[in-house]
Input
Amino acid sequence: MNVNVTINGAEKSADVEPRLLLVDFIRSTLKMTGTHIGCDTTSCGVCTILLDGTPVKSCTLFAVQANGRSITTVEGLKQNGELSAMQQAFKEHHGLQCGFCTPAMMLVGTAFIEDNPDPTDDDVRWAISGNLCRCTGYMNIVKSIQAAAATTREGASS
Amino acid sequence: MTTTENKPHTPPEIGGLGHSRRRVEDARFVEGRGNYIDDIELPGMLHMAIHRSPLAHAKILSIDTSAAEAVEGVVAVVTGELLANYDLAWMPTLSGDTQAVLATDKVRFQGQEIAAVIATDRYTADDAARLIEVEYEDLEPMVNPQRALEADAPVIRDDKEDQTSNLCYEWESGDKAATDAVFATADHVVALETHYPRSHPAPLETCGIVADVDSATGQATLYMTSQAPHAHRTVFALVAGLPEQNIRIVSPDIGGGFGNKVPIYPGYVVATAASLVIGQPVKWIETRTENLISTGFARDYYMKGELALSNQGKILGLRVDMISDQGAFFSDAQPTKFKSGLFHIVTGSYDYPAAYVNTKGAYTNKAPGGVAYRCSFRVTEASYLIERLVQNAAYEIGMDPAELRAKNFIRPDQFPYKSPTGFVYDSGEYEKAMRLAMEMVGYADIQAEKEQARAEGRLVGIGMASFTEVVGAGHGEDYDLLGLKMFDSAELRVHPTGKAILKLGVKSQGQGHETTFAQIVAEELGIPADDIKVVEGDTDNTPYGLGTYASRSTPVAGAATAIIARTLRDKGKKIAAHLLEASAADIEFDNGTFSVAGSPDSSVTIQDVAFAAYTNPPPDLEAGLEGVHYYDPPNMTYPFGTYIVVVDVDPKTGQWKVRRMVAVDDCGVKINPMIVEGQIHGGLTEGFAMSTMQHITFDDAGNCLGSNFMDYLVPTAWETPRFELGETVTPSPHHPIGAKGVGESATVGSPAAFVNAVIDALEHTGVRNIEMPVSGDRVWAAMNEANTG
Output
């Protein structure tokens, strides 16, 4: 079946098996490996992408379900050669260790702070509770997302 | 945060020890440009899927692969029979046992590897693997080690000639007679029987390999999720009979290890053999279920500890009996001499003359592994037992648990301290760390609140653990893996422009080596850390080392790095003397500047010296500024600390919540405080996980009940407590920079603190034990039993 998507602003199409998972379409067909696979049961969240701006676990959708839609992956966070506020914050606040959950965490964080520009610690923890991290104990991830929210607020008010 | 911050000696632009330097690794990770095993794609690459046993214990009567072979896109189906032709059906484990690569005679655990399909894509390989038909004859599954050790238990390892029972090993430490004598006359004996449940490290990236064997040249390039690439190369050479110079193991970015990526797994061997035979690269990536049911379990120790005490609360001796559930193959990755790892560190942070530890391992029909999950070879189990016992002993005697600890701690003036089981503790100030943690948490106030809370119908508990770890194996005399001495190495090359490359035998899995090891060189040579590239994980391009586990990178490879940097600094002094027309004996060095004693204006920089090393070396000196050092540590290092947890337990449901978690760690000198803090956060979370939710269980038929992330629970951000960190700094006296290692302290120390806190909330009802994971229903059951019993 033919799939047409806009991914990080670029239009891509491919002929795929109907059963091909969206995560495999992104990784194997489109060769964008920043989106990861960590479980078989939609539990870990490392495959999270933004589909029309909403975080979804790309191991739980077929590629064909993304037909005609817009996808953002970690490769699309950097704009005009500049790291996004979220990427900067993760670097600055030691929000990552092995880096495997990081692309998904940053994407969830990015979508989340658009709706919640000034989140509490609990707000962030709830928002990322569909995404596992085994290295950081989450404290610095929460701090990073809050810091990115603060930077974004300052950017908006200036 | 209460700290006695390490004050850096180097300025920020050099970025040596003590700077919270931001991580070099992050530049690629935040852009999704990490290079993990599953990101590697080679021309002509094939994909492998494994057919596994649904049964825990059964004879294999026949294997039919014809339907799988008929699937379009399938290139080959590999069975144990086929591997046997190459003498590869079995392989050695890191504990000197053997393990089936693909089962030929019988299956010994659910999930055991039976056959592998190699196909043009992963989906096809999976489809075909399901079509393999195996006929079995059921055998009685051994699902607990106590049953497995009974005389009439069927022998699981009938493949081994001398094996007539399921006894895997027996090991003891300490002095039995002296210990029994102490117990015979002690005022109090406090006993605790508890199971440290089977767990799994479950890094978010599963294990995998891309095996690329060139049939023309015989060169085998194996991209592998390996925490120990050099040791793995040697094992591959021994197992597969490939010449070692033709094996190159590349360990790319690793998405978490925690001990899961130390052993060699059957999938690695099959993929390599398949690539060798087919002549094309073969990729195998575990699914999460494969990861949880077949690779790298941890813990599973059934422990009985007894503590002998005087009426005054002085500990007199410790006696421990332990049975471990090893699964079907003994594949703990641990030093040869020690069959139950370093479990005999179980005497803990306390000074007493007598201890005896008796351990037995049992083969069972479960997955092999026995990995040191964020732990230095079974220290986690040991620390848990002694810290639980000490708290129960305090209740028995009617003392405050903190004061009982204080009364028995090894005092600072007793170091180096020889323990009754043979360890030589290098340094410690245990009471100082404990008092700091007590002050941070407001210990007295919480103790006072407990009674008041009970009057109001609330339950509050406070528990602590004052742990001592033993990390950084070896020295080589006592510590080896399959005969390979546990040294580690560093190769440092300072280039003519004063930039440098540091090559290591260890391998980061998220610990940030590329950042921290550059800081060690920056400290010693004054070259800015930003000018130093750190390379590891490629056996063709790094010096031999035993790898990263058991918190050994900083204690061993970190020491090697400091020493080779000092060696180059000494050479630099000779070059500086030549440039400054002075005597080398008069050259002083500080922060990258070599100067003549008494004339500070007469100086050259490390960059000048590096350039001269290649353009204008002294006539009597070899050119260049490069070297390699292999460091065999004189002793282990002994990080320590005190963790205190305050919990609120719901008296109606048994549900409990962490109100406070204070962690005071002493890991000696810190290279990068930010990274140390991150390591502690992560370790505390895994300790919390084990005490509350993470465990792998089996039903009576040997079915693994924790085979995915819906059944094997790991904590999300929502459940994970907030942590408050503090520190004391007691440098290791024998480590060149005084560092001790920190990656595992928190996992080792914290489970006892969480469980002790819950027990403390119920202490007045007589509850002295609840098995981990301490779930709400278990607490509720314990409360009910106490009320009715």
About this structure: The mean pLDDT of chain A is 97.
